[in-house]
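Researcher: Please predict.
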Amino acid sequence: MRRNRTRLALALIALATPIAASGCASSGSGSSGPVTLTYALWDQTQEPGYQACADAFTAQNPDIKIKITQAAWGNYWQNLTTEMTAGDAPDVFTDHVAYYPQFVADHQILDISGDVSSAGIDLSAYQSGLADLWVDDGKRYGLPKDWDTEGLVYNTKSLRAAGVDPASLANLTWNPTDGGTFEKLIAELTVDDNGNNGLSPKFDKNHVKVYGFVPTYDDGSTGQNGWGDLAAENGFTFLSKPFSTDYDYGSAALAQTITWFASLSAKGYAPAYSKNSSLGVQTVLDSGQGAMTITGSFDVSSYTGSTAKQSYGFAELPVGPDGRKTFINDLSDAIWAGTSHPQQAWKWVQFLASSGCQDLVAAKGVIFPALTEATKKAEAARTAEGQNIAPFVEEAQAAGGTVTYPISSHESEISTEVQSQLDAVWLGQSGAASALKTAQTAVSGYMSQP
């Protein structure tokens, strides 16, 4: 369930042009008799779980069959745009909070608030705060599907070589001035070609064998997999509430965070953007050239099990000046407004959001379903498979420990602009404060538009 922000920005640009729906239907209509619904998702590792859901659903509703289609994240949204233009989109598809405002604006997905109310669905049964993310102007466009938080993943061999006790990572601190004990750990894990670590006066930053930290640089306007979490720990807030217009990319707290993030490569503790941008973060870690990074709970399974190329462990994010903060993100399932089978599509969406499906998904041990009871089952299943996901769960349950993904209009333009300005910072062509002020000027202009 990886969210690649560069690809996200490009796909959102494709969605920015309004598309006329081929035939919007209310959820009160629909054909009778046997039907086949198409259901689209992007994560191949989750397909077996949702196939189990489809089988269980059809067993209960013999006249409704589910055909699952899957495309990798890089193609998923472009395919969806093309299919909507052609009037042949999936009846139901996995949705992301960054995308649905544009779908709403273009009347491409159905309001399900009446169905949710009629069905008496208990929204409090989901992980706290998720249900509200899918409401725009009093209308609901989805039910919580799953959730993810961010944490540290580290190479256990690197920690052992540095004489670091993995348990000590629970007490890491961070600040943008000297990086706290988090930067000290990063320095300790960084090793040059002569075996000197980043704390040694003999350390050669120009000839590094293992980097202590491997940043996600192409993280768009949110920095979900790195700088965004730390910025929140430094008191930065993206938006006061969903769909507000009060972005503040000119914030001193954000500039401080970005400056620190960029300093890691200047000190030799992280690969330079110019050398790292074409490589995936996990590729660098798997090669043994990186010791640690920030990752999402949706990627834990790729670092564990028989396919893992190194031995990895996981820990909570460090504690910043404003406490420990992590993004918590959520997906939902949307009903395409052009579906010929809205009643059947709603039945499927309702099942996807129920324990009948989410318990099946939980048993696969890939992600955390949105229902809190299903989360407990997912935790047990993932632990049984050797995944240490406790840090991600503890972060999600900590009071005030999560920040939600900023939801607003014009995200395609915002993501492109912020990433462009940050690229200049990562490349050493601009200071953080100057670049972010330029970004904020552009963002303010977008937000003043309808």
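Model: The chain is about 40% helix and 15% strand.
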